[in-house]
Design goal:
With about 300 residues, this protein is mainly beta. It contains four helices and 18 strands. About 5% of the residues have low confidence.
Length: about 300
């Protein structure tokens, strides 16, 4: 690791201000983003939202990428995620898919992490699958929330595919891009039913490359064997359509396929699924954590490109 950004660089918005580090893209330098779990420690201790002094879902950064300009794409390779010794399972009143079932009480559990895995209950230990929940660049103006919704520039997407070995592609909207990372999970099920995974403090180690002049309108993730196109929208069908459009453009424009070939292959082998929970651009002020919008994922096997 060439640089370590400590959790004291945490903030509660993706924005183009006060970079914690300036770096040139394409150097191969590895940057560690340390994330904080302080809010979960406080929730576990006090069981009372009113007693919190720590904010929810900080991101560490931002990193100013020299030479990055609007219309470029940032390529962030995730090399490793180092976890601390415990994680947290939490249910906050009024949130999650089963908020009415869970009732008004705040639930919190410390989850030990060790070589055996995540000890979620006394009887259940699962292998850890560390991932980044929150990753993004700055918007052209203002600040994007680190909680919801997810944005074209990224944000709290909660994608299990944002794991070591993957490359996350993000649109650049401002000079310098201003990359921030937070919300590390030791383990998360697809969909994140409670809105909280096994949250964990740790360090995400990444390197940054730049694709000049390549404009994308939403994040993409590349794994060893798949391309994943993130659809964003409200209602869900809008999110699905946008993800399909980006996948279709990748095949026809970037790879020179005919429209017929692209549509046929998409219908045959390109699966779609829901991503993590998100909210609308204009959330209900009485229920600001309500999942109104949607993150959808549209998956292209790399084997079809050979």
């Amino acid at each position: 690791m060439d640089h370590l950004l400590g959790k004291e660089n945490g903030r509660f918005g993706f924005e183009a201000s006060d970079p914690a580090l300036r770096i040139a893209a394409g150097t191969g330098e590895r940057i560690g983003f340390e994330t904080s779990d302080e809010v979960y420690r406080q929730l576990h201790e006090h069981k009372d939202m009113q007693k919190l002094t720590a904010g929810i879902n900080p991101v560490t950064g931002p990193v100013f990428v020299e030479g990055a300009a609007p219309g470029d794409t940032l390529a962030v390779t995730i090399h490793e995620i180092r976890l601390k010794d415990c994680g947290w399972s939490v249910s906050l009143p009024g949130t999650g898919a089963l908020s009415e079932v869970m009732g008004p009480e705040l639930f919190s559990r410390r989850v030990p992490l060790d070589a055996e895995g995540a000890h979620v209950t006394d009887r259940h230990t699962f292998p850890v699958r560390p991932m980044i929940g929150c990753i993004g660049t700055a918007p052209a103006e203002g600040s994007n929330s680190t909680i919801m919704p997810a944005y074209a520039e990224g944000g709290n997407m909660d994608l299990t595919e944002c794991r070591p070995g993957s490359v996350v592609y993000l649109p650049v909207m401002v000079e310098g891009a201003y990359l921030s990372i937070g919300d590390i999970h030791a383990l998360m099920a697809e969909g994140e039913s409670s809105f909280v995974a096994i949250e964990a403090e740790g360090v995400a180690v990444v390197s940054i490359d730049l694709i000049p002049g390549k404009r994308i309108r939403a994040p993409r993730v590349e794994t060893d064997d798949e391309w994943i196109f993130v659809g964003l929208g409200d209602p869900v069908q809008q999110s699905i359509t946008r993800g399909y459009e980006d996948l279709f453009e990748f095949l026809t424009v970037d790879n020179g396929w005919t429209k017929g070939d692209a549509y046929a292959v998409m219908s045959a082998v390109c699966h779609s699924k829901l991503g993590g929970p998100t909210g609308s651009e204009d959330p209900d002020p009485l229920h600001p954590m309500a999942p109104v919008g949607a993150v959808t994922l549209h998956i292209l096997p790399k084997s079809v490109l050979l």
